[in-house]
Amino acid sequence: MQFVDVILPIPIPQLFTYSLPNDLYTQIQIGARVIVPFGKRKVLTAVIAKIHQNPPQHYTAKPILEVLDIIPSVTQIQVTLMQWMADYYMCCVGEVLNVALPSGLKISSLSKIQIRPDVMWSVIKLTEQEQKLIQSLKKNEDMSYDEASEALGVENVYHIIKSLIAKEVILVFEEIREKYQPKIQKRIRLTSEYITETNLKALTKKLEKYPKQQDIYLAYLKQVPVFRDWTLNEEGCNKEILTKDITLSNSALQTLLKNAVFEEFEVIISRFEEYDANKEIRPPVLSLAQKKASEEILDFFATKDTVLLHGVTGSGKTEIYIDLIQKVLVSGAQVLFLLPEIALTTQIVLRLRKIFGNQMGVYHSKFSDNERVEIWQGVRQGKINFVVGVRSSIFLPFDNLGLIIVDEEHETSYKQHDPAPRYHARDMALVIGKLQNCKILLASATPSVETFYQAQQGKYGWVSLKERYGEALMPEISLVDLTQERKQKHLKGHFSQTLLDAMQTALQKNEQIILFQNRRGYSPYMACKDCNYIPKCSNCAVSLTYHMGEYELRCHYCGHIEPPPKKCPACQSVKIETVGLGTEKLEDDIKLFFPQARTQRMDLDTTRTKNAYQQIIQSFENHEVDILIGTQMISKGLDFDKVSLVGIFDADRLLHFPDFRAHERAYQMLTQVSGRAGRKKDSKGKVLIQTNDVEQSLLHKVVLNDYEAMYAIEIEERAYFYYPPFTRLIKITTKHINRGLSLESANFLAQKLMSKLGKARVLGPEAPLIHKIRNKFLFNILIKIERENIDLKTVKKFIYEQVEDILTEKAYKQVQISVDVDPL
Q1: What pLDDT, on the 0 to 100 scale, is given for residue 43?
Q2: pTM score, whole prediction
């Protein structure tokens, strides 16, 4: 008897074994999706991980219900990767599968009802409504709950169905259906009898008597010139072209279809715009510096698997990527190009699409389930060999990768925080590189300290690109002293006079401006002037952010919303005012200072819809917008020729954050935002950073664009305090609605961990900066593990066992514990 071990998309720590019915022997392959029963009533989509002949020891194996794939949707390499991720990130392989597989490839089950075949009608008494439902069922064989509701004309049919089940008249079953639905296009064409010149002429003459039908016929001939080439009729034309033309009669079209002049048929089409696959691909023209960098990368690839391209903002890294991608695609291998944000895909996809056409796929969360399945299947079937995508793209079923490019490799957006697996896409790219024997190019103007350290140690190749592309100059960065401006009474709200003057000059020259403020909303919080009361979220330990457009206070952690108070709930004062600055208020202030300027905001609130990014970026690129205000979204890789000025607000807040990476991140953020200025040839952009501390040494390193000086200080501190890259970190978080229980379980766990790992390796528990989220109190334990002379697998196994032990204790069963390996 054959058995299979399957990965179930649920958080259980092991694979489950199922028996294989004889008729399915020949259909089974590793990576194929199967439908399996689980529990009393659940039906799940699972993926086969192993085929063998060993029955399970502790339970009776249930049979597989159905095999969904002839060609496995998941590759053997992906199965290996999922199991590796589960081990490394200390989670269940089912959690990895759940994140990896697009929803459209999972199965949904739909409850349906049908009449039992053995009903003794003579002894059954039915109500009028029950009889009506049975009559409908006799006509339809089976019905969904919604269909039953519609047949009876009532909203709630559950009590009727429950009664019929109790009387043993009907039974309920689950109809299994795949979520993915291909896109169907309805088309029309002339029926075969008219595809001769004689018959076409006769039809033309006949329809002269029927003007409305003739109009339809002539509109079709315009789309499909069959007199010139009769073979064109086979494909016909999209029916929508004729039905949406208001000058044409739909009833006339229906008559032509009824009279078999036309016939209607359906075709499956792609959800993505088709591009000419035969289009000649022209390589980019590289500058001498770019050509040298590209050659150095290829030289390093001869001896190293990973190379860091350290190129200043605006150095033209994209042209180097294109050059390398073309070389890999010509060799017949595949390419994955990772970007940290959907916002970045908008601009770069348009550039790449012009070059690579339909060889390229795009994969990110703003796509529908069906769109993502089409990209997945395109990669699996070898139709798509080049994909641009965000972190989830690492799960695509590549089997012949030649190159993975990780653009802006320092970005924290590559890290998945919730749910598990809490993976880092950059690090997973390195693992995939080893599994598929492919090369990895990491690129950034401000590499992460860990990546730069590996390059300095010689583990990665290091290629430096220190000049901007096309003779563009690096921007002139200046610090604006807010303390001085305040003393001189030059400050207008949150704007220094220096920044207002620079904005006025830029607008007069018809140039564009970017303003960066890394807080959305109108203001970070509201406060009472008399007693300093601040409205806080009832579920989280944070103040509520005021959004003026919606006139509401909103929690950015749990989504809680409430109206702003008209008077202080604490002291009844009416002196409630907004405090601080968000992007929405910044936009409001600009309308007062520069009423003629066209402004646009780019933050999470304005980019919720699918095409919002694209619309904002295109309008700014087309100079329909003068001033773009945004959060960190605008800091990443966007390229606009006419931006001459960048203004940065709240720089001090980035620096004074309780995190060992605060200075590194502040440098990266400020440098990346600054890099949006002055990308045009012979145009030196200007960057103004508003600060209350002009003596801050890190800000001067930003002004001088001195990454290596920042790195030297950071790496020395990390070595002294034993932080990455010199150690590995594992963060364990306990969560519970009872603060005392959350702390007690964290203390108990910390003691258990210290018993073997020692006090030096186990820090905490400590309450994080935001210690309550969604009504649950959080406590963190941080574990530092040295990189040498220690068995990491054994340490992780020990940690996992201690976490499991805690959860089996009766007192702590309701406590949630999450483990984050390599936290950011």
Answers
A1: 77
A2: 0.83
